[in-house]
Amino acid sequence: MTPIELSAHEIARRVASGGISARAIVETMLVRIASQNPEINAFTDVIAGRALAQADAIDAKRAKGEKLGPLAGVPYAVKNLFDIEGLPTRAGSKINRDLPQAKRDSFLGRRMNEADAIYLGGLNMGEYAYDFTGENEHDGPSRNPHDRTRMTGGSSGGSGAAVASGMVPVALGSDTNGSIRVPGALCGIFGLKPTYGRLGRSDTFPFVGSLDHLGPFARTAKDLALVYDALQGVDDADAGQTPRELEPSFANVGLGAEGLRIAVGGGYFAQGGEQVAFDAVARAAKALGATREVILPEAQRARAAAYTITTAEGAQLHEKRLRNRAADFDPATRDRLLAGLMVPAAWYVKAQRFRRWYADQVLKLFADVDAILLPATPCAAPKLGQTTMNIGGQEMLVRPNLGMFTQPISFIGLPVALAPIHTKGAMPLGVQIVAAPWREDIALRVAYELERQGIATAPVAGL
After folding, report:
1. Per-residue pLDDT tens over the stretch 8-20
2. Which domain holds residue 411?
3. Domain count, the chain
4. Rounded to a whole number, what is the distance in angstroms from the first to the last CA of the chain?
5. Domain containing 408 — which CATH number?
6. Tens-digit pLDDT profile for residues 351-369
7. Does residue 385 fall inside a structural domain?
8. 3: in domain
9. Residues 219 and 456: beta-carbon distance below 8 Å
10. Which residues are catalytic?
């Protein structure tokens, strides 16, 4: 097995034991990036010199007999809305390139570094994270490694593409309305959107403060749990974080789904998509023995309320830029933000009130179930440049509707693991595994069980 195919936990084990050097891992990944990135366009910034220096420092620690961190020698990269010391935090935009260089890494970047992971750079994304396609007006689109004529999904498209193509074994992204789960599904890899407030967000460029989550991508459920554990910690600079004690997900993930009560979401989540999306959920449910159906009440209204909050808060954040540099935005992003400036305050307040009611109703479901299975996207990856899609005879816009099944969940901050479902000869799809607040461990256990049974897989594209 080549270093490109190794899981993150296997890399860490081999580096710690001296079976392979951290420098050899990094050099292999840099060669992979040089060969794959010109076409896939996942990386916008590669910090090779820093990565090699980190690798040498880790190898020196090992040679001295010092204890290495849980991610020793594991290369990673981040969506370019995370601060990277020495680079402007572009957040997928043209305007932000004029910002001063970041003085330090983001909080989660520092957590990864403390675990002895190795920073390889910044990743392509939709402008200001207001995107579900992975197509960037300024840097070009990230391309799906399984079919380079297709979208990665967004807005963390570069993160999904980098992991799926083997340029890094793990990556970090953000998820406001589905931006980890959509690219995870379309690129065929695992992803985790933790509970709102679980992971610190300081030194990252925001989109919608009351909806923004940060989380990892990986090619195995165990890697997802390993990285998630490393990321946990109190971020004193993030007022939106709700500090809690470390949940040892990596240690528990091998327990699988035994004893868990698992249901399938019906109603809104069983219509409006292509049959293959629902077939993926059915495959997962059969493997897990999940026969019960539950209904998330008013999910469609939840999606509408999420749109209202997203556009109103996002527009307020960018009001000065819209006034002074409107021509430097992607027109599609600019126009939605301009519309957000005109949302009446009463609509925003009503959306937030509905949000509280909806959260109460959905949380009641977890008195009787531990996890709920839902489709991640209504279809597999559309073609690059495709603006509409026909689903069940209904013509739908691609950009907003790729997130139709993810928005009602992030709206109330529930933890979700994304399990990739691959079918031979077809593009991958994904299944959302939704758990109660702070029960990421349950979602990860279910994802692991699907992987153990061979239902959820994430092969390196192109190998």
Report:
1. 999 999 999 999 9
2. 8-452
3. 1
4. 11
5. 3.90.1300.10
6. 999 999 999 999 999 999 9
7. yes
8. no
9. no
10. 79, 155, 179
